[in-house]
């Protein structure tokens, strides 16, 4: 079933039990296609990937778009949002719902989550696309939107509230809880040393915007550290992959379908 796009939403998904917690996800595509899991970031949802889903389905992939607790259609859970809990839940989702090794495409802190999963459970990951994410605060540029979020700018808060209220089963009154939990996480995480990922051998495409949130040197450090990584910089962009799907989509699809890169050395 193709997703139904309603404004900034993707409808047509279902609820699944993941390690005793209820999550909403959208899944569609060729049953024999390469399983590919798209991981959104904070204050986002499966709708973040609305510009990718049609092209990725047309390419024959089997897509999985889970939504984190307190995001999109998924009910919130007790306790703070942490990278560790998101990683654990992602691993449980891969094991219980996807059921076989998959490509992971992560955006923003979803990129960091994908990389940690590839490090801790390499048996679950085929290829990795790391999109516009940083691993620690040193990798983040000063960003106006992030600062507005952290400083609780009223216009920004209302914008995020509108998106939450449109789909959340917890109701509008729960938005302040989600906002506070997200702020606490954004203030301190992710917080990983790049060197901790030197053993991640999954072929990885690191995609960054030339005017984006991630410091270019940080992205280069990640690429230099991962044994099988390559870098793509999309020019004139800030918010990937919404801003330039005509560049982003074929780039990712070609990477997921490509043979491993060859290495040429002169005699």
TrEMBL record:
Domain AB hydrolase-1: residue ranges: 37-249
Which UniProt keywords are given for this protein, alphabetically ordered? Hydrolase
* Pfam families xref list: Abhydrolase_6
Annotated Gene Ontology cellular components are: membrane
Q: Which GO terms describe its molecular function?
A: hydrolase activity
Looking at the record's lineage, which domain of life comes first?
Bacteria
Which PANTHER family does the record associate with it?
HYDROLASE, PUTATIVE (AFU_ORTHOLOGUE AFUA_2G14860)-RELATED, MONOACYLGLYCEROL LIPASE
Protein name in the entry: Alpha/beta hydrolase
Organism, scientific name: Gordonia westfalica
């Amino acid at each position: 079933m193709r997703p139904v796009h309603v404004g900034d939403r993707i409808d047509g998904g279902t609820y699944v039990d993941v390690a005793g917690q209820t999550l909403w996800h959208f899944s569609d595509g060729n049953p024999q296609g390469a399983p590919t899991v798209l991981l959104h970031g904070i204050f986002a949802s499966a709708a973040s990937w609305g510009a990718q889903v049609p092209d990725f389905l047309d390419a024959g992939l089997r897509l999985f778009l889970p939504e984190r607790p307190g995001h999109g259609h998924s009910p919130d859970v007790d306790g703070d949002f942490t990278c560790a809990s998101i990683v654990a839940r992602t691993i449980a989702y891969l094991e219980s719902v996807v059921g076989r090794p998959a490509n992971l495409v992560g955006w923003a802190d979803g990129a960091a989550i994908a990389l940690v999963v590839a490090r801790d459970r390499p048996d679950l990951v085929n290829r990795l696309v790391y999109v516009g994410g940083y691993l620690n605060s040193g990798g983040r540029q000063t960003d106006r939107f992030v600062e507005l979020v952290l400083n609780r700018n009223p216009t920004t808060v209302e914008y995020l509230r509108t998106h939450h209220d449109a789909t959340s089963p917890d109701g509008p009154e729960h938005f302040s809880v989600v906002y506070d939990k997200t702020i606490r996480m954004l203030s301190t995480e992710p917080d990983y040393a790049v060197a901790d990922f030197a053993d991640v051998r999954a072929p990885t495409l690191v995609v960054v915007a030339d005017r984006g949130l991630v410091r270019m040197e940080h992205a280069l450090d990640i690429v230099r550290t991962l044994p099988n990584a390559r870098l793509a910089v999309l020019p004139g962009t800030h918010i990937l992959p919404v801003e330039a799907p005509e560049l982003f989509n074929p780039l990712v699809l070609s990477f997921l379908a490509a043979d491993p890169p060859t290495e040429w050395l002169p005699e």
